[in-house]
């Protein structure tokens, strides 16, 4: 999981600047990013990116919805720090692995000639880019983040595994529902928006 290629394809920049650059590029030029910014066997930058997104999401959630801070010993501030540490060290890597594992199984079932597992891990990680702001307590914004993340996942799968967008959408439906619908709260937000519009 932590393989770090010294000179990855596409010449990706390392460090905080590299994470910021990857975030901007995957949001603005996703096809080009997934074509050039994902290096086979080089999963560490994807893991770092996923952790950064998860920490940003959780920080926004804790800051704007204090009731979401877990109750731990030592007061609210210490509880928030412990919660963020748990997200960075345990939850984000676990969710990334689980989502990528689901996606890999579905690709094996649906796609004959496909890219490697490391590429799938990176696609899942970078597809989460919009969720940096999903911690803001706006159901509409969260729905947009979930939808955009799902679209990025489909584009990334199509680009890295050489399949049509339609087949990528079928292969990515369950992982996208898990990651963007449940983990980042897109489905609950969609229900809230639908109720507000009188649709349910």
TrEMBL record:
Q: Which Pfam family, an example, fits this chain? A: Yip1
Check the record and name the InterPro entries matching this protein. Yip1_dom
User: Locate the Yip1 domain: which residues?
Assistant: 25-184
Q: What GO CC annotations are associated with the protein? A: membrane
User: Keywords assigned by UniProt?
Assistant: Membrane, Transmembrane, Transmembrane helix
Q: How does it sit in the membrane?
A: Multi-pass membrane protein
The main place the protein resides is: membrane
Q: Which domain of life is it from?
A: Archaea
Give me the segments passing through the membrane.
Answer: 44-65, 77-100, 168-190
Places the protein is found: Membrane
Record's protein name = Yip1 domain-containing protein
